[in-house]
Amino acid sequence: MVNLFSVQIENDEFHKKIGGGLPKGTFGLIIGESGSGKSVVCQRMTYGLLKNDVSVSYVSSQLTTVDFIKQMASLGYGVEKFIISGKLKFFPVYPLISEVKKRERYIEKLISGRHIFESNVIVIDSLSALVKFDINPDSAIDLVSFIKRVVATGKAVVATLVPGEIDESSFLELESAATFVAECSLRKFGADIKNTMTIKKYNLAQMQYQKQIAFRVEPKIGLVVEIAAVA
Q1: Beta-bridge partner residues of 214
Q2: Of 146, 175, 207, 220, which has the fewest beta carbons less than 10 angstroms from its beta carbon?
Q3: Listed residue (125, 152, 190, 147) closest to 25, CA to CA
Q4: Ordered domains of the chain (ranges, CATH)
Q5: 196 forms bridges with which residues in the sheet?
Q6: CA distance linking residue 45 with residue 33, whole number of Å
Q7: DSSP letters along the chain, please?
Q8: Is 23 left (phi over 0), alpha (psi -120 to 50) or beta?
Q9: Is the model's pTM score more than 0.90?
């Protein structure tokens, strides 16, 4: 579809579960605790976008460039050629800050980083870790206004949030402004514990989607959607 950024790859049917891909104009939030699968979902989306010739900017608050390349390779999502070609722009936050220095004024730095927002899709993992020292309800409104201007040009922005990492008012401001909200969690299925993504809001959906998606992560294979229904 013209109004959709496809994330389809041969390995899985994740694209079908989320309605084919990311609609243009999406401001998406993926919410969840550490280890719930937020980053893997972002990395799977990123690889699918790149395979469909969609340019991506990936901002990481945890990984260096080398770590990111290794992480993607461990999932079977090789991205070296996309980085070399410029189709994927990776922006690591970790090497730019001291371990003992707070991450201050990162909302201002993010908004002023125009080159980050030149790509078709911008992924920020994690937004809450990036801005937690300087976000408040007023700055959250400024950030939302900026993101809304970005996606109004036909781009998409997807960010991850950890509950409790930013104040509740700022969290609600971001969540209410988002057009796509999904929550990742760990759930027990029999003797196994699986990752589950629950889609709570999807205002711009172009196709039918599944509200709850159970998945696991396999080395060299990546995100694998579970066939069994989520109870």
Answers
A1: 196
A2: 220
A3: 152
A4: 4-225 (3.40.50.300)
A5: 185, 214
A6: 19
A7: -TTEEE---SS--HHHHTTTEEETT-EEEEE--TTSSHHHHHHHHHHHHHHTT--EEEEESS--HHHHHHHHHHTT---HHHHHHTSEEEEESGGGS-TTS---SHHHHHHH-GGGGGSSEEEEETHHHHHTTT--HHHHHHHHHHHHHHHTTT-EEEEEE-TTSS-HHHHHHHHHH-SEEEEEEEEEETTEEEEEEEEEEETT--S---SEEEEEEETTTEEEE-SSPP-
A8: beta
A9: yes
Backbone φ/ψ region at 172: left (φ over 0), alpha (ψ -120 to 50), beta: alpha
pLDDT tens digits for range 91-118: 998 654 444 455 568 888 889 988 999 9
What type of residue sits at position 72? M
AA letter at 54: V
